[in-house]
Design brief:
This protein has 278 residues and is mainly alpha-helical. The chain has two domains: 132 residues, no CATH class; 116 residues, no CATH class. It contains ten helices and four strands; from the N terminus they run H-H-H-H-E-E-H-E-E-H-H-H-H-H. It has a two-stranded antiparallel ribbon. Strands 3-4 form a two-stranded antiparallel sheet. Strand 3 and strand 4 form a beta hairpin. It is elongated and about 75 Å long. It binds zinc ion (ZN). The site of zinc ion has 8 residues, from helix 5.
């Protein structure tokens, strides 16, 4: 959930032209080029793009193209993009490439840079799988290259009581339009897995000690002071990992939840600050 500048259309077009200078691709150039243009004008939206039928059928060869091209400089560049977090799910790692429209369903876009999104290994191989849209027209994934929405805060982590055994739920922020909330619900439901929940559990379990370490002493921590630290944690998470990272989402949810803040402030009571090793 990061907004990334779209790969240059000219570079995709030049690559396709070069590829189609050779067999068996030459007869498919015009139709393929039209599919690329369509992808860009429809912003990759799976509700507006239909699969192109090439004659003779070359879909298997088009799907396989990705394997042979995945070490090419243009794809390595996407895989190694410097980012604060995974543009699809917000985890702290990147390092692989995900097909926004799966290559098995849209083989004609298997090597189109605009359809190749830097992502973490979970997004590339995990829960999302071959899902690319839901059942209503707003249900699709957020596209890091085409959805300007990806550049603003989009979601938060709800902390569900009982706080002794809290559960965590990802939810779109309230200020989004109804359509965008539906899009985000679909997106979150399909990109977040067990690791997201474990990360939230860890942050929740260790935050009382963090509070004690930041505040020092042995006096009870006031909810107001806890709130201030939470605001600071949110700011640091946004700075280091981005607006829509897992950690920013966690602290955004916590910043809105007075009961959870009071619980953490109480949980810090009786804890001793960890000695500094410096
Ligand atoms: Zn991811």
């Amino acid at each position: 959930m990061i907004r990334i500048e779209m790969p240059a259309a000219a570079s995709d077009d030049a690559y396709l032209q070069k590829l189609c200078g050779k067999q068996p691709w030459s007869p498919h150039y015009a139709l393929w080029q039209a599919a690329y243009s369509g992808y860009r004008s429809q912003k990759g939206n799976p509700w507006h793009i239909s699969r192109t039928a090439f004659v003779p059928d070359v879909s298997d060869q088009q799907t396989a193209l990705y394997e042979s091209q995945s070490s090419s400089q243009r794809i390595v560049k996407i895989r190694q993009m410097q980012l604060k977090s995974c543009p699809m799910c917000g985890s702290s790692v990147t390092g692989t490439v995900d097909h926004y429209l799966p290559k098995e369903d849209f083989p004609e876009f298997s090597v189109m840079a605009a359809n190749l999104v830097p992502a973490c290994s979970h997004c590339n191989s995990g829960k999302k799988g071959r899902t690319f849209r839901g059942t209503s027209r707003n249900e699709r994934f957020l596209h890091p290259y085409f959805d300007s929405l990806a550049g603003q805060p989009l979601w938060l982590t709800r902390i569900i009581p009982p706080y002794e055994a809290a559960r965590f739920e990802a939810a779109p922020i309230q200020s989004l339009s109804a359509n965008n909330r539906e899009l985000m619900k679909f997106h979150l439901r399909h990109v977040l897995g067990q690791q997201f929940h474990r990360n939230a559990e860890n942050l929740w379990a260790t935050y009382p000690q963090y509070l004690r370490d930041e505040i020092g002493g042995t006096a009870p921590v006031s909810p107001a002071r806890a709130r201030k630290e939470i605001a600071r944690s949110l700011r640091i998470s946004i700075l280091t990992s981005g607006e829509n990272s897992w950690n920013a989402s966690f602290f955004r949810g916590l910043a809105e939840n007075g009961d959870a803040q009071t619980y953490l402030a109480r949980a810090a009571r009786g804890l001793k600050a960890t000695p500094l090793l410096l």
